[in-house]
Hints:
Elements: H1 13-21, H2 26-41, E1 44-46, E2 55-57, E3 60-67, H3 69-93, H4 98-101, H5 107-111, E4 133-141, E5 145-152, H6 159-172, H7 174-178, H8 188-198, E6 210-213, H9 222-232, E7 235-237, E8 242-245, E9 248-251, E10 258-259, E11 262-265, H10 288-293, E12 298-300, H11 311-314, H12 317-325, E13 332-333, E14 337-338, H13 342-350, E15 355-359, E16 369-370, H14 376-388, E17 393-397, E18 403-408, E19 411-420, E20 422-426, E21 429-432, E22 437-440, E23 456-462
Parallel strand pairs: 3-23, 5-13, 6-7, 6-11, 11-12
Antiparallel strand pairs: 1-2, 4-5, 4-20, 8-9, 9-10, 14-17, 15-16, 15-17, 18-19, 19-22, 20-21, 22-23
Helix pairs in contact: 2-6, 3-12
Amino acid sequence: MNGNGGPTREAYRVLEGWLNSAPSQLLEHRRDEAELLFRKVGITFAVYGNAEAEERLIPFDIIPRIMSGQEWAHLSRGLEQRARALNLFLKDIYGPREILRAGIIPPELIFQNPHYRPQMNGLSVSGGVYVQVAGIDVVRVDDKDFYVLEDNLRTPSGVSYMLENREVMLRLFPDLMAMQRIRPIENYVDELLGTLKSVVPERGSSDPVVVLLTPGSYNSAYYEHSFLADRMGVELVEGRDLVVRDEIVYMRTTEGPKRVDVIYSRLDDDFLDPLVFRPDSALGVPGLIAAYRAGNVTIANAPGTGVADDKAIYSYVPDIVRFYMGEEAILKNVPTWRCREREAMSYVMDNLHELVVKQVNGSGGYGMLVGPHSTTEMCDQFRNLIRANPDNYVAQPTLALSTSPIFTESGLAPRHVDLRPFVLTGRDGVRIVPGGLTRVALKSGSLVVNSSQGGGTKDTWVLSE
Length: 465
């Protein structure tokens, strides 16, 4: 709210005044009401491997994170640039591979990547769009600039929490929200549906049928799958609900087969089609990739997009922006040491206690080391892991992440936050609703904001100018 102890930021002054005048017990009551609302709606997420609770209520903080319109304008320009560049990159590596010929990226980072899909080579995707939905994680560093932490391009989740957080705040704090001009996010679902319909195959219908493909109710993000399908007014389907005939995808209905034009897939590539990927998959649709290659259905996001959100490829994104767009990246990357490179690995080994080490294909806060908060034994274990497979690790400095106030038992207190804006890319361009999902580390001093690691969420307000 006040930077490094200075005056209150302009964007937070209305909130500060409201907090100063609010009765002492009001926030406690509102916090309890928020928890009851979330329980009533049933907003949960699953924690794999946790024996104590298969489903948890995601922790929610009632103090909003607020950004000025000027801050958002800069951030959204950078997000749009990044989304466009990554789509161009995917189009290139599954096509002419000019960036590899130019020596910008080592070919082995592509061809040895577990998310590279040779089945996509030479395939012309609808509208030239590989990533229709991206969740790009950003942080503010040193109370000034925004940095990108990672690009989530496969099946990014969290948008349902963003929307539900706003609905809860509207119910609990209508007076506070009426005091400011907060840009709306409620149109995200309409924008998502519009984006999906914009990439209908050329052979598809003028009134395209869109479905959301889910792995099923045991998936950690199943609540979000059902939430989005319901809000978009499209069918939520599992693999068994779809069938491929003559390279055309149909949905089984009580009125007979109905042709499907666009599949918003929340399935990992490996499970999409047992005839092409994992033969033991019971979640996918046999023949789906044949229908996709024939141009009879669009899969969003496209198979193989994971090669571009790999943490080693992440370190090349400024070069990717420069190569395809002839521009400097608006949003900075966090400095990254690739352990596959001898000099970088030597530096990481010598400074492990000061660095954050991540698996190249890791996610959810798993498989990482936060050096300053780790014991000597933990650092030694990671040294052995890195030596055994250096290609699998990157390291970054421990950033001075910005904090946002949260409401605790003892009052307001600062906690580290990040932000996941959701970037939609269709045939007709890039759309970004103003805001995103702010994730917050609820433990004092913690830098890990993932819900699977004990983090929570809060509403994000972007003010109109």
